């Protein structure tokens, strides 16, 4: 009920559209209730005219008058029904627009820890199907409830007051049809939720296949993928058949009960007409009302289902909208002010989801000043990328502090912090737009010269000029039209556009050849003079030039120093160096000197 009340309050934020929709419903129902009476009156009036021997012209006039009245009432009813449907849908679409923006904005603000656990297919389902269920609430549940209450309530009073026996017979099918309709729709709703889950699974299978289509082709795994998709499809198909069976069986039962009730009204009413207890017009009015009432009564189930569907969909949607944002501005947070540009980790510890007995980082401490380059190296899973994600507060530390110019990153605004700290991600994600827009994503109004300088520093400018439409070339979905190295260089150019105080390269040159990486590093030396540079890499040639190298293992710093100092220690770093550089090969040290 809390969810229903919340959705209702949201609809009432558009009062004049709601008022017009409800008002049009009331007028349309009133006019619809007049139609059986007009038809009954026309039959009686015509029968009286014929039985009284009135001339044909008078009988024609009576029929014409009745027909015109019926036509006028029907047209007016149609117009008000049109207004009801239009404004009811308008209210729903206004709500959908507001919720869509709120949902999308929430998704943008939710922390990495949320997205680590949530599946994108499930989020799309909530943002589309569940939001649609909430949108339809006003027109399919609330307005329909007003319509049915008036139509059945006022109609029942009119019929029973006219003839108690015929009135009860006319309404006899209503309880059964209303009950079966409600049961049917609730069953269909339950199976729809199951079907929605199965379709979500089907969507995830398809999404995963499309995302990894090159792997599928490379391993000739199409038959396996088809079997997997076919298995998920058959589960959805079986449930769809069950839904058809439920709908057909119950529709047949409701139709039979309606026709049986109509036969009883015709039989009992016909006897009353023969006995002179009622008129043909009155019997016609009862039969006409039954025909009018048939479809609205069947909609009782749709109405019940709409309330239940809105409640279920709203619960899921509001459950996400009401989630507390783990990473947000602290009360009283101030803008970050960078002067010296000193980054400091002070006994930093971190565990995902606050699981303290499984720490990823333990007591990490180091300092980096403006113009310095800090390199982080270590085995996979040692916590290197986690360190990069803690600086811009993609996650919050569970112990210790990270400061920038003595300002705790948790006490400054996220907007200013993330302008000051840029992370070149390991996953080189590109948008399906032009190369120019991808490079300038962080500053869409940047001048063309800045975009070109950033691309030149990333060793991408000459390649872009060779394309048919240069910087206006549209890259494919996720940048599939570019090679892995080109995508990484483009993300480096995108980051260099921002001019941050701290720049983190999270293994962002792994797909770039050594010669191109050397040229990028040379271009970066000018860029790095006014900022802290942190390089995370597995390839030692990417970080040998750093002022300080941290070797991370099991979340702890086990070695630190310059390249030469760490070689002299003959420890883990030296062992990794020996694995990457054959004995007697001095090519890497020469590269270091040339950088």
What's the short story on this structure?
This protein has 21 helices and 10 strands. It has helices at residues 2-11, 15-51, 56-109, 112-117, 120-135, 137-162, 164-170, 173-211, 213-218, 222-274, 280-321, 384-390, 414-420, 435-439, 448-457, 461-465, 484-496, 514-528, 563-569, 572-580, 587-594, and strands spanning 343-350, 361-368, 373-377, 399-404, 407-408, 421-424, 502-506, 532-536, 548-553, 556-561. It is found in: Cell membrane.
Residue stretches low in confidence (pLDDT < 50, at least 5 long) are 587-595
Task: Note the gap between the termini.
Answer: 67 Å
Question: What is the CATH architecture assignment of the largest domain?
Answer: 3-Layer(aba) Sandwich
Tell me the number of structural domains: 2
Mean pLDDT score, rounded? Answer: 82
What spatial order of strands do you see in the largest sheet? 6-7-8-3-9-10
Helix- and strand-based class? alpha/beta
For the secondary structure, the number of strands is 10
Q: Report the major sheet.
A: 6 strands, mixed
| Share of β-strand residues | 5-15%
CATH class of the largest domain: Alpha Beta
**Radius of gyration over all CA atoms, rounded:** 36 Å
Would you tell me which CATH topology of the largest domain applies? Answer: Rossmann fold
Fraction in helix: 55-70%
């Amino acid at each position: 009920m809390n969810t229903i009340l919340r959705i209702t309050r949201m609809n009432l934020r558009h009062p004049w559209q709601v008022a017009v929709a409800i008002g049009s419903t009331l007028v349309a129902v009133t006019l619809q209730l007049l139609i059986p009476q007009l038809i009954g009156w026309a039959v009686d009036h015509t029968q009286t005219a014929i039985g009284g021997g009135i001339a044909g012209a008078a009988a024609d006039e009576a029929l014409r008058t009745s027909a015109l009245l019926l036509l006028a009432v029907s047209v007016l009813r149609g117009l008000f029904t049109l207004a009801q449907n239009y404004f009811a849908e308008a209210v729903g679409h206004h709500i959908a627009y507001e919720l869509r923006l709120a949902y999308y904005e929430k998704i943008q603000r939710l922390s990495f820890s949320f997205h680590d656990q949530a599946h994108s297919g499930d989020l799309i389902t909530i943002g589309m199907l569940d939001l649609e269920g909430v949108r339809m609430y006003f027109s399919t549940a609330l307005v329909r409830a007003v319509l049915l209450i008036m139509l059945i309530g006022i109609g029942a009073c009119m019929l029973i007051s006219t003839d108690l026996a015929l009135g009860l017979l006319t309404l006899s099918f209503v309880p059964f049809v209303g009950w079966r309709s409600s049961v049917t729709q609730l069953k269909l709703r339950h199976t729809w939720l199951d079907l929605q889950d199965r379709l979500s699974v089907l969507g995830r299978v398809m999404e995963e296949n499309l995302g990894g289509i090159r792997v599928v082709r490379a391993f000739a795994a199409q038959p396996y993928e088809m079997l997997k998709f076919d298995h998920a499809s058959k589960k959805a198909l079986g449930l769809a058949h069950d839904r058809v069976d439920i709908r057909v069986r119950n529709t047949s039962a409701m139709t039979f009960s309606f026709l049986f009730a109509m036969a009883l009204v015709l039989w009992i009413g016909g006897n009353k007409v023969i006995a002179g207890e009622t008129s043909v017009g009155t019997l016609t009015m009862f039969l006409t009302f039954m025909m009018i009432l048939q479809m609205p009564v069947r909609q009782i189930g749709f109405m019940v289902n709409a309330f239940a569907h809105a409640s279920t969909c709203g619960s899921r949607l509001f459950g996400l909208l009401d989630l507390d944002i783990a990473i947000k501005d602290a009360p009283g947070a101030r803008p970050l002010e960078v002067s010296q540009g000193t980054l400091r980790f002070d006994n930093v510890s971190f565990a995902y989801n606050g699981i303290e007995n499984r720490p990823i980082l333990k007591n990490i401490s180091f300092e980096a000043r403006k113009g310095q380059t800090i390199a982080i190296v270590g085995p996979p899973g040692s916590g290197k990328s986690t360190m990069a994600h803690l600086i811009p507060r993609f996650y919050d530390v569970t112990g210790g502090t990270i400061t920038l110019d003595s300002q705790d990153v948790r006490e400054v605004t996220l907007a200013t912090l993330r302008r000051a700290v840029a992370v070149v991600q390991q996953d080189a994600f590109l948008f399906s737009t032009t190369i120019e827009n991808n490079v300038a994503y962080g500053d869409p109004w940047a001048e063309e010269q800045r975009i070109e300088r950033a691309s030149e520093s990333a060793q991408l400018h000459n390649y872009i000029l060779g394309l048919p439409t240069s910087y206006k070339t549209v890259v494919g979905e996720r940048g599939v039209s570019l090679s892995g190295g080109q995508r990484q260089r483009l993300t480096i150019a995108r980051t260099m556009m921002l001019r941050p105080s701290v720049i983190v390269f999270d293994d962002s040159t792994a797909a770039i050849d050594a010669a191109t990486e050397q040229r990028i590093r040379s271009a970066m030396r000018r860029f790095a003079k006014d900022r802290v540079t942190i390089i995370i890499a597995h390839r030692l040639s990417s970080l040998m030039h750093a002022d300080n190298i941290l070797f991370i293992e099991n979340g702890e710093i086990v070695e630190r120093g310059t390249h030469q100092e760490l070689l002299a220690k003959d420890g883990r770093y030296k062992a990794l160096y020996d694995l990457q550089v054959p004995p007697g090969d001095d090519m890497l040290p020469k590269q270091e000197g040339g950088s």
